[in-house]
Design a protein that fits this description.
With 211 residues, the protein is an alpha/beta fold. The protein has a single domain, classed as Nucleotidyltransferase, domain 5 (2-Layer Sandwich), CATH 3.30.420.10. The chain contains eight helices and five strands, in the order ββααβααβαβααα. Strands 3-2-1-4-5 form a five-stranded mixed beta sheet. α5 links the parallel β4 and β5. α2 packs across α6 and α4 packs across α5. The protein is globular. The termini are far apart. The mean pLDDT is 92.
Length: 211
Amino acid sequence: MKKETFFDYLLGSDETGKGEWYGPLVATCMSLNPNELEEFRLMGVRDSKSIKKDVLLKMADEIIKKKPIYRSRILMPETYNKMYAEFQKEGKNLNELLAWAHTASIKDVLELIKYERVQVVIDKFDVEKTYERLTGIDKSKVEVIQKSKGETEIPVAAASIIAKRAFETSVDELNKKYQINLRSQKPEDIDPSILPFVAKIHFRNVKKYIH
């Protein structure tokens, strides 16, 4: 018997956009039952960082067609910048914002599934702050694991693929709306009045061009 059969669902949480000066921050939680987990293994689901963009987008479409239960928190730049400023005022850092986004998507998914035993794997970034944000979850039913290189776990890898798809789609929308190309342009090439709507303004290479 595989360990997965001990759980009704295995959840994986991952984020993307943290390191890019442009576009949103996306945190996704993916929920898979043991049968779905095996299907995703056979599909070749793996860490999004190891997949070329065109292949990743096709794999994301395949994942969505299978209708797994997942939820994403997509913080577009305008929202991200407001939240980041609010967190800073409270003496909190980027890891606090990441913990909020991860745990919000995890709680969203837990509300959608019926379970007696669930395992949640989070791609580790700040153990203490993440656990603080997970208050209110029934720990007798939910086992939480924060793991370095969490994308080696299928649910986390699937979450990373869906998060990356959401990021790329959002960047395409911003490019179209503002008639720019965030993937090739630099902050200094963009109208400063637009930057708060397309970029994370606390990034050093962006901040100096905000008037």
